[in-house]
User: Fold these one by one.
Assistant:
Number 1:
Amino acid sequence: MATGDALVSPARSLPVASRIFYIPELLHLIFSFLDKESNVSNACVCRFWSDIALDAVWKEVDDMIHLFSILKPVLMNMHGTYEFVDIPGVSDWARFHKYARRVRCLRFNSDSVQGEAEVVLDEVARTRTSFEILPNLRELVWTCHDLSDLQRCLLFLHGQLKYLTVSMWSEPGKPSPLLADICARAPNLHTLKLHIKDPDMQLFGQIQLVVRNLHYLRKIVLPEFHFTSEVIQELSRMPNLGVIEFQHDLAMGPGNPKNVERFAPVLTHGAFPALYDLNLTARIDDLERFFQDPFAPVNITTLYVNSYAKHSAAEVRSFLSTLSQECKCLSRLHVILLNKEINQTPCTEDERLSFFTLQPLFSISNLTWFEVMHKYPLRITQDEIEELAMRLPSLEALELNPEPLFTRKPTLDLEALLPFTNHCPKLRYLGLFMHATGFEVPSARASFKPFHALQVLNVGTSTVESPKAVAAFLSLLFPPWCRLQFGITWTGRGTIEHRSLDLNTLVELSEGVDPWEEISTLLPALIQVRREEWERTRALKEEVEDLRIRTRLVRDTAEGPPRDSCIIS
């Protein structure tokens, strides 16, 4: 008769080489990389594999109807509504629990469900045998367009839930009753992400509920334009909040830019005790005053700033200077200036950013990631690029306005890449706006280093004169895994109105895409050819060195021992 240990794992009776397939931690890791169909097959191999494979199969559930079909078969009736063929009983729930305890993440999106699920969910709520339907659920994503569908997400809330993404509705001037239920049923949330469909929805009351009840909240994510002065003021009281983030995804809600036209939260002593990552949309001058406040969150390590207002280069430099003085721990800085009004006259020079504008960055000692985005090209010379690379050798990502909307005044060519190969060995992401010709650099420099860590080169709206020559030069610098990125992201930020570009500008920018597509197609083959050429050269050098050593040995042997040596027979 088999012992209890044998039922747990048959590894003891197997050859040593086969025992690795019965190490639970290793199987969990392997199965995590496989698709659902493969893990269904793995669950049929043996009892030991079955338990681990089923964990992988049911860890993340995107089809709620498929999950509840385990209780009783589910069919769609003639009205397009899902319903059970029979009422689930106690024995059905006992069988369901075997799978329910494996679910860690549940996602529901009313747009992806072919029929209505409310009848099934109501039957689940009525017949369940325990309060926690999915007892080990850690993440719930529930997005829908109907308030009745939204209220049914309460079925899955419990004290173990850590991550929640949910849509929000409320009556004008009143907090959403749903949020009060969320705070009561899931008080230990770490991350809260809210989809807000009404751009004029007042969040102050809802945020007050969050501050008073979700004491363990570490991250809050809202659509853009919802982090107003009042909201930031309330969030500053949360003891464990580490991340304040907004997203540009219109599916989360459009937002109203008027909400952040003025940004002046009133902070008190002890504000933001745990904050390290902050995203804000506001005017640059308002943000400068915010960080000059004696209770400002100066210990942040990441700052992402959006502004849709028109700013001069002097205002941007002043803001960067304030950050360099106040935020000594800053390691990631994104300054995104999204005003799109282009003036063709020379008076735009006071708006155009320059190397002088960016000089305060040199005082931020921990800076490893910097991004700036502006409608006009950055005014910077090759010597200044060299100085920037030398002064910031720890950079891992740098985007120096690679996609300006006005593309007629480039100041750099492909030679601008070389200082970063020499001085920034950790650089993984680089974005530059250049006029790429492919001829200047090889004639200027006889030899140069390739990038060793670079993963992405973003050329944005850079112009190209000779695609084949540019591709040939880039193949000298690119590691095999590096990819070329080009085009614009202006149309993916802000409201629907902000995402539209002037037709003439859009046509001009789209014309510059084709040469970069050609270069992107040529690069993989050219990089492979360069790699093979380097390998042959290295092998030839090793062979030459070996021959040189052999020649030296032969010559030394032929000359015989020196005359003053002593030979003992």
Note: The CA atoms of residues 393 and 400 lie 15 Å apart.
Number 2:
Amino acid sequence: MQQHNATALLAVNASLASTAPGRPVTPSSVAAGNVIYEGWVLKKRRKRMQGFARRYFTLYNSGMLSYSLQPGQPPRDQVLLTQAAVSTAPGRKDIHVDSHNATFHIKCLSEDDFDKWMAAFRKVVAQEMPKSRRSSIARSATRGNMQFGRVSLLVEEMGNTIADLSEALSTFVEEDRRRKRISTRSRSEGGHSKEHGVLGLFRKGHHHESPHLGVPDAGVAESPSSSELLKRMTTALEQLKNQHSALGKTFHSYPSIDTCPSGTVGSPLPSTAEEEDEVRTPSPGQKRMSAFSSHSDSSIWFDAPEYDGPEEYLLDVTPPADESQDSKLYFTDSRMTDRTEATEAESSTGMDTDSESEETAEKSFTEEPTVVHRRTSLPSGPVGDEGSLFAVLKKNVGKDLSKVALPVTFNEPLTMLQKAAEELEYYDILAQAVQSQDPVERLCYVAAFAVSTYANTKHRTGRKGFNPMLAETYEDVRMHLISEKVCHNPVILAWHAEGEGWELYATSSGKTKFWGKSMEIIPQGTIHLKLGEEHFQWTRPSSFIRNLMMGTKYLEHIGKMVIKNTSRGDSCTLDFKEGGYWGPTNVVSGVINSSSGDVLANLEGKWDEQMARKLDSSHLHVLWRITPFPKNAVQYYGFTAFGITLNEITPDLEGKLPPTDSRFRPDVRALENGDLDTAEEEKQRVEDLQRDRRTRGQERSPRWFKQVGEEWVYKGGYWEQRQRGWTDVKPLW
């Protein structure tokens, strides 16, 4: 069966290659220019049941991978390979490229084409690997754990097949009913055509119509009557569902399900409605690695906080030819791999069985763990009644609400320092800006990042973060962030983050005012970004919480944000538009102007969906796309998958955090666990301790930031002190 499918697919690919216009280019023929490799491939469409479409892909020396409808046309989308994860299934000639803001599912036209594309990808990967990490390693796992990984892959594949088969079956039933309502002549003439169009999905000779759909033999063979074929398809579907259910129960009852075996990797995110039908691939923008996916709520994230480069994964999902041999799931990481092309080609087929290299891999994997398990849900959602916010606010109309004490029921289990870190979730966009050689495109990426900082507020209304204590800190190693509360009255926070080629810092404060029916949040302070020699800065517009008195509360960002490149003089003006009663909501438009005022580019999008650059009337370049929220986000404070991890103390942080870190706040931890009474008591106790220090003249002073004019700047030393320990730092609670 497998050999027959491969033959049929090769025949289809050969016909496409022979009829497709274009010019397949070998790597050697374009080495002299900016292009490493280009040619035709099949790309999976974004919507369900649409199969694959022929697209022309181009890979540049900069690591940019783009595609267009025809050679020479403007690109429809592109990803930065140096910040992407590349997963391959060699038996099917599949390549999955996930750069966090976009995912390309590619099927090469031939095995030779697959090898050439992978060689080109690995060339980019090899260029970006840190020299200190270029060592040969291959991860191996025990037989039981590898079988566990294969079972999970099979469960996912069967689930996708069931979904596709169910939809195709529903479509057939609807068309069959429609045919029965028309005349006998129309049914006899048009029925065969329609039947062929729908049932062709399940015939071996029509794999090119839906190459991603796999159907068991019982549902493939032709039948002399539609009713008989429909019955056989229904029976096959029910059998497949029963098998999937039984296999899924076996999979979830596996003893090591909660710990996830070494050598296999858990789902990077809980399953979402938007992603259930997509091939799940790693997302290196947040450095999450996935070799298989599970629909269980106990899915685990695996982070590699010290690395933010390209990664390669080999998914061996085809059954072995020899059943006596053990199933193998190889995991390779580009930061630890440096091989010759011959060795790479051998490894890509899953045939690397060198016992010596496996022993070295096991030893290296044991001595240097490189992944961190991150949670995918909060311990508890909101507990108890939130209370009437209007009852509290109506006595303070027009006043600054930052000085008004609110019950803990109005809080969410994050401090304001952690909420500042939450806004930097899409920091990988800055790496793309660093890679860009075009100053206009670079400013486009900066604008997209500025808009992305609002994405986490999509499902947030009413609740506020805990007010930090003076000198309270928060760190996040993923973007090398350190933040600290530097002033108590007014409340001022300072933070600093950095990555390869970029530095981001800000002094943050704000005011909150109640206007009767809505509450206005007025951010204050300037955000600074340095990309190499260029310096960008901008301020944020106001936000409004609507319908405080009655109706469904919602958050709206309104106003203009001007991003200035103080080094070159060009700027980008982003307009966050107010939503109308009938029109679209959360719309953002932007214009990039030169120092002389000329329009250089136009941007459009929504702060809760995506931002794109308009290339022409029918083409967009997507700069950023939101990561889907967890399915139960609304029941858990509206947190993003990234926000869920902010208050977690992972094993790599144990013993390394200062006692002033927000993760140790007892009131925040109690609220996160759903203990409302303890949270209220601890909040009062922590605030009383700060008042007592102030009364005794022992108030703590900022340690990591110094005031320069009206702003606070990072003076360094935090990460160095982290290595030495925190013996001289006293706790705040």
Note: The two ends are 66 Å apart (CA to CA).
